Amino acid sequence: HLGTIMSGGPELYHVKLTTPHTTAFSAPVLELATFYFESESSDVEAAFEKFAKVAAKSAEGLVGAASGWSIEEVEHSSLKGKGKARVLVAGWQSVDAHMKYRETQEFKESVPLLREKAKGAEMHHAELKAS
């Protein structure tokens, strides 16, 4: 049934989360933010860590967060050829909690850390429901 709602084929790749992730995955809502880069960089890793520390201190409704690099090279319209993806997985109490955090000064001051060197970015929410 997925094919009926997709605009194209799926693009699959693996991500090795380098920070503890179990807390983030226990949340009812996951934010999946993917940032595309020409290559891996320790500067980017440090920026993600700093961004996560700011959010942990100031984001109401944030349950936990983790991030990591794609194992495979990926293709994206923002890249010239292939590159690497850095994925941020943040667990939230609700989509509304995440959207409210995006309006705070703390978010507005720290998000350039993630966007500064990225060639492109995408963000999606996944609401997890027990069946």
Tags for this entry?
single chain, about 130 residues, alpha+beta, six-stranded antiparallel β-sheet, about 30% strand, globular, ABM domain-containing protein
Can you describe this structure?
With 131 residues, the chain is α+β, with helices and mostly antiparallel strands. The chain has 5 helices and 6 strands. It has helices spanning 22-25, 42-58, 95-101, 105-110, 112-115, and strands at 15-17, 29-37, 62-70, 74-75, 82-92, 120-127. The protein is globular, with a radius of gyration of 15 Å.
The amount of helix comes to: 25-40%
Straight-line distance between termini: 18 Å
Globular, elongated, flat, extended or rod-shaped: what is the shape? globular
The ordered string of helix (H) and strand (E) elements is EHEHEEEHHHE
Give a summary of the structure in a few sentences.
The chain has 131 residues and is of the alpha+beta class. The protein has helices at 22-25, 42-58, 95-101, 105-110, 112-115; strands spanning 15-17, 29-37, 62-70, 74-75, 82-92, 120-127.
